Amino acid sequence: MSLKKAVQFDGLYDQDQFIGLTYTAVDEKAVYLFYLAIEPAKRGHGYGSQVLTLLKERYPAKQIFLDIEPVTSEADNYEQRQKRLAFYQHNGFNLTKHRLIDDGGIYDICTTGSHVNLQELNKLTRKMNIFAQSKIV
């Protein structure tokens, strides 16, 4: 359930077993995967890749965006950040030169496309974020 039409929460199940969830914002041209969570015990079994494949199949004509913590060697969870970036790259996402800045920090933007329309992307992030102000730079 979502408070906004353009925002979707989806529960992920394998048969009757809960696997995880996604939180996305959708508009005419793009999809922003704001959150992908897989149950810890289910990680490493291909569910995350399957979710990304299903998302691409659900929105074949739309560019998909997501954000990740910057991969910096000073970060306490540097190895986790490296693995996360490698996972998304393995699944067809490219790291862009753009960043999302919001109340929670600064995040690198990844996308399935090659061109980033900043005006459209900022519009999309405003749809997903009810309380915090965010912008793409």
What features would you describe in this structure?
This is GNAT family N-acetyltransferase. It comes from Lactobacillus panisapium. It holds the Pfam family Acetyltransf_7. The protein is of the alpha+beta class. The chain has a single domain, classed as 3-Layer(aba) Sandwich (Aminopeptidase). The chain is built from 3 helices and 7 strands. A 7-stranded mixed β-sheet has the order 1-2-3-4-6-5-7, with helices on both faces. A hairpin with a 2-residue loop joins strand 5 and strand 6.
Q: What's this, in brief?
A:
This protein is an alpha+beta fold and 137 residues long. The chain has helices spanning 47-58, 78-90, 118-128; strands at residues 7-14, 17-26, 30-38, 63-68, 94-102, 105-111, 135-136.
Beta-strand fraction estimate: 35-45%
Looking at the overall shape, the CATH architecture is 3-Layer(aba) Sandwich
CATH topology: Aminopeptidase
Helical proportion?
25-40%
Count of structural domains: 1
The biggest beta sheet is recorded as: 7 strands, mixed
CATH superfamily assignment? Answer: Gcn5-related N-acetyltransferase (GNAT)
Classify the secondary structure makeup into a structural class.
alpha+beta
Overall mean pLDDT: 87
Protein name: GNAT family N-acetyltransferase
InterPro entries: Acyl_CoA_acyltransferase (IPR016181), GNAT_dom (IPR000182)
Domain N-acetyltransferase: 1-113
Pfam families: Acetyltransf_7
